[in-house]
């Protein structure tokens, strides 16, 4: 017998199955991410390097900027002892983005923890089902800690993937309420619970928009950002 009784793992018409997927998927992804931070033996690093090498950049952005400049500029940089890796990187990261991720993650973690405690206190009959909110809270705890531990000006793809998973599971939950109402004539949840689920969906969407609007790369201070826009526009016009 599974967590949700006789229902199969892909019987998404059952609310328990939908809730289990909504909790287990993001939590499993967070556990995998945490596992990658563990120290790896030197023997295993050699094999991981072979697998990872095709996905690594041959040249970093700043190395390409140094090599792509005019010859007299490169000679001037070499005369000053400035190599390709020593180009000045502004490294500016907006503080407000980190603050938003932190407070939203902490707030969501607190809400899901409180909801889990409420379920255990009022139900308590199905222990496995009652821990689902705590698994979701772990996912939001990772979202709140990750931008503070590794500050980056470019999109954190682990957070982007995690927010995509949370978005899909949130849509599954809200869509399940509508499906049950339309097909099986099951009453909708309470207004407070339904508003909480919709609010959770909107919060995840806002975080995803914030990540998508982050630049994929940050040029060095030697590059005029207006030239990037003009060159990109001219390249686009030549392709038309």
* Element-level helix/strand string: HHHHHHHHHH
What structural class is derived from the secondary structure elements?
mainly alpha
For the biggest sheet, the summary is:
none
What's the alpha carbon Rg, rounded to whole Å?
A: 24 Å
| Shape call | globular
- The end-to-end span amounts to 61 Å
Q: Kindly state the number of beta strands.
A: 0
Mean pLDDT: 80
Proportion of residues in helical segments? 55-70%
Q: Stretches where pLDDT falls below 50 for ≥5 residues?
A: 70-74, 80-90
Work out the helix count.
10
Residues in β-strands, percent: under 5%
Could you describe the 3D structure shown?
- There is one protein chain.
- This protein is mainly alpha-helical and about 240 residues long.
- It has a domain at about 95-215.
- It contains ten helices and no strands.
- Helix 1 (about 15-35) packs antiparallel against helix 8 (about 155-185) and helix 5 (about 95-120) packs antiparallel against helix 9.
Question: SSE layout and pairings?
Answer:
Elements: H1 15-36, H2 42-52, H3 61-67, H4 71-79, H5 95-122, H6 127-130, H7 132-149, H8 157-183, H9 191-212, H10 225-239
